[in-house]
Amino acid sequence: MDLSNSFEVARPIDEAWAALTDVARVAPCLPGAHLQEVEDGEYRGVVKVRLGRITTEFAGAATITEQNATDYKIVVNGQGLDARGEGNAEAVVTAKLEPINDTTTRVLVDTDLTLSGRVAQLGRGVIPDVSTNLMDQFAE
Predict the structure, then answer these.
(1) What are 48-64's pLDDT values in tens digits?
(2) pLDDT tens digits for 70-120?
(3) Please, what's the b/e burial string for 94-125 (b: 16 or more CB within 10 A of its CB; e: otherwise)?
(4) Going by C-beta distance under 8 Å and a sequence separation of 6 or more, which residues neighbour residue 114?
(5) From residue 110, how far is each of 37, 38, 72 by CA, in Å?
(6) Please, are residues 49 and 56 in contact by the beta-carbon 8 Å criterion?
(7) Cβ pair 88, 113 in contact under 8 A
(8) Hey, is 49 helix, strand or coil?
């Protein structure tokens, strides 16, 4: 499933880039996410998400596979297993920053998300809305 979101931050592009690429700083901004450890470039933690009638918690890891400060682009690959063993998630998240003006930056986020198991069956219809809501909360 492909998801596209965008938001604006009231910061110059270099400040927004520094914040976005500081995983320890930015992870708590995602509702339900808790970074637990970092080892050899792998970020491990949990993400708790409500998908329609169910709430699920994924434990997993993410790695930065591309980080280009010249183009203001970062790509993160992540995967997680539902805590109850009822499904898994894999995502490739690409974020690209664009200056709007000297004090405002637009962040474009494209996610290639794959869900399997019960989570995919029950949550598929609400995922785009959940994605938009999470991104709005993240931007705040």
Answers:
(1) 988 777 788 999 999 99
(2) 999 999 999 999 888 878 989 999 999 999 999 999 999 999 988 888 777
(3) bbbbeeeeeeebebebebebebebebbebbee
(4) 1, 89, 90, 91
(5) 25, 24, 14
(6) yes
(7) no
(8) strand
What secondary structure, in 3-state letters, does 56-123 show? Answer: EEEEEEEEEEEEECCCCEEEEEEEEEECCCCEEEEEEEEEEEEEEECCEEEEEEEEEEEEEEHHHHHH
pLDDT at 20: 92
- What does the block give as tokens for 40? 């050899």
Of 37, 47, 126, give the one whose Cα is nearest residue 82. 47
Amino acid at site 111: T
DSSP, collapsed to helix, strand or coil, labels residue 19 as helix
**Amino acid occupying residue 58:** F
Which residues, including other chains, have CB under 8 Å from residue 10's CB and lie 6 or more apart? 103, 104
